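Um, can you check?
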Amino acid sequence: MWKRLIIAILLIVIAAVAGVVRSHSGGISEFKGMVSHNSAGQTREEKRETYELAPGARVEILSINGSINIETSDNKTAEVYIERTASSPESLSRRRVTVESNANLLKIYGEKTSTGFWAALFGRNPSERVTLKLPRQISVSAKGVNGSFVADEVDGLLEVHGVNGRVQIATASGAADLKGINGNVVLSLKQLNLDAVGISGINGNIELRLADGVNGYLEAKGINGNVVSDSSGVTIEKGRKGRYWVQIGSGGNSISAKGINGNIRLTRSPSTATAEQQVESKAATTATK
């Protein structure tokens, strides 16, 4: 009696699996016309679009499973290039990246699509790479990035939260808030104005590249590492329990750093956008053409 019951259950499970496989095969054939395949057996999808943005517009980049590279200039046009790759069309269809835009907002976000039970359980998400050419006079907010984040000069508010990779900012001129980053951080500051610069929850080393003539204070607490400086005119006072007080030049507005699992290094740079950063950003953009 028990043997018959077990055999019946197994037959039902096998039939259900066969039905799921047949339904997914039909979905693949409908999706093939939207993508290309390379010699390595990967499925690849590209999207190129341009948008006009007003000065001071906000750019939001959310939930991207891959790297982000931003190049800025004095133009008013935003160029968006998105590349997605996966092992199969079925894997590529597990997620999509959507772009929404008006004159004051450019929003790029990734999200999961509805998939069958077995695909949700065993499938792999596609890799995504976002490359942007943006006006310099904008604010940028990037959240939930599973890859590196590299950006040129940004004149407005800069927010980078929840990044699983290194973060490199050529120049920040306004307020900057970097939080929840699992990787090394390089942040070049053109000035320290009344807007706050905050860095918190970083699992990696931090390099602060300060333009010549920048004065201010750095208050760091909860640091599992050291604060050091490669330039003159910087005074460092070490307290207890990972606290540091740093005067930069004659002092002024403040940089706040807390919850850092790594070292903080301060350097002076006559050119806030280093040659290394410029070459890396332009090379990444050229590779997409």
